[in-house]
Design a protein that fits this description.
By secondary structure, this protein is α/β, with parallel strands linked by helices. It has helices at about 25-30, 35-40, 55-65, 75-85, 100-105, 120-130, 150-155, 215-220, 240-250, 260-275, 320-325, 345-350, and strands spanning about 45-50, 70, 95, 110-115, 135-145, 160-165, 170-180, 190, 195-200, 230-235, 255-260, 280-285, 295-300, 305-310, 310, 330-340, 355-360, 365-370. A seven-stranded mixed β-sheet has the order 3-2-1-4-5-7-6, with helices on both faces. The chain has a seven-stranded mixed β-sheet with strand order 12-11-10-13-16-18-17, with helices on both faces. Strand 8 (about 190) and strand 9 (about 195-200) form a beta hairpin. Helix 6 runs parallel beside helix 7.
Length: about 375
């Protein structure tokens, strides 16, 4: 570990200075699973939500795992793993796959960084139980302060035996064995008659099948958004509610929904299909609309994040605002919603252009920014 871990970096994730490329949970997971990792054959190790590659590359370099299959929800983590593999001479030692049957098929050891959402853990447990070997061992590691007894209950729905290791450096690992396959619960589906929409969600998608209050506030402004627009982007689309609402209300719009979360992209695809607009909403897994050309869009809608990890970070939305400013044509509009105490109008003016508040209450502000 002393040779591998110091060489790992967070790049291209430069927006979370409080996070590290290798943490105590990574180390504990690799130690707890060491014997089984060394005994595993080619393709028998799977990893879920490796932050920056420490679990995947640690399993390879420290314990001899080969052909490791990896699913990472965030694209920035997937890219960091690829860069760290290149940096350490381990390119080709892993395959990046969606969270699904191909990831779990025949796996005997599965390492998981505990997600924040219980539904994300439930979907992972269901996928592993359905496809892994009968003698699979699932290790779920996280910081003690973020782990709850409810996680044990979720794992017990898909595994016959669940136990916990002793804590070390404020991290702990849950160990699950005896898979009990059952019907998949995801994507989940919920109708919202008040909005005339059906929302579909995979486990790691923000807000699940709910429509959060910020999105609802932005939906109310939809009729006022760039009425002559022919192209629109839902930036950081989540489950695709805004993209689908735009496509249904304005048939002339070509709508792109983009998010760096694999769960969000899969959810938005399902939501578009459920609402009959799959042919007019293009869903792209991308980081801050990097794949869209400069000055190519008339309208951007965005309900940006305001957390990095568990902390409220004022600048967490800045990369999305900058992306909107880049892809909008001159005169194009960015419509966004954010928590009213956040100082986003100054950032919007800096990254996009003149900004006007169209609604504000104690909780949320809706603003429109016009590209210079």
């Amino acid at each position: 570990m002393t040779e591998l871990f110091p060489r790992l970096e967070r790049a291209p994730d430069v927006d979370a200075p409080d996070l590290v490329a290798v943490d105590a949970t990574d180390r504990l997971l690799l130690d707890e699973a060491a014997d089984l990792l060394r005994a595993a054959g080619p393709g028998e190790v799977a990893v879920v939500d490796d932050s920056y590659g420490a679990l995947t590359l640690g399993a390879v370099a420290l314990h001899g795992a080969t052909d490791v299959r990896v699913s990472q929800d965030l694209l920035v983590g997937e890219r960091a793993l690829a860069l760290n593999a290149e940096r350490t001479g381990l390119t080709g030692s892993h395959r990046s796959l969606p969270l699904g049957p191909e990831l779990a098929a025949g796996a005997r050891v599965v390492l998981v960084k505990a997600p924040k959402a219980l539904d994300a853990l439930r979907e992972t447990a269901e996928v592993v139980a359905a496809g892994a070997a009968d003698d699979v061992t699932l290790y779920v590691g996280g910081r003690v302060k973020h782990m709850t007894h409810a996680m044990n209950d979720v794992l017990r729905d898909s595994f016959g035996e669940v136990s916990a290791t002793l804590a070390r450096q404020k991290s702990r690992v849950l160990v699950a064995r005896g898979p009990r396959p059952g019907p998949p619960s995801f994507p989940r589906r919920q109708e919202h008659p008040d909005l005339g929409l059906t929302v579909c969600a995979h486990g790691a998608a923000f807000a699940g099948t709910r429509v959060d209050l910020g999105t609802r506030a932005l939906l109310q402004a939809l009729p006022r958004m760039a009425p002559q627009a022919s192209t629109a982007v839902d930036l950081g689309c989540g489950t695709g509610v805004l993209a689908v609402a735009l496509a249904r209300a304005r048939p002339q719009l070509a709508v792109v929904a983009t998010d760096q979360s694999a769960a969000a992209a899969a959810s938005a695809t399902a939501t578009a299909a459920a609402n009959g607009v799959a042919g007019r909403v293009t869903v792209v897994r991308d980081d801050a609309a990097a794949g869209l050309a400069d000055g190519s869009v008339d309208l951007v809608v965005c309900n940006p994040p305001f957390h990095v990890g568990a902390a409220v970070v004022t600048g967490a939305a800045d990369p999305l605002f900058a992306a909107a400013g880049r892809v909008l044509r001159p005169g194009g509009e960015l419509w966004t919603v954010f928590n009213s105490p956040l100082p986003h109008p100054a950032a919007l003016r800096r990254f996009v252009g003149p900004t006007r508040v169209v609604h504000r209450d104690r909780r949320f502000t809706v603003a429109v920014s016009t590209r210079r």
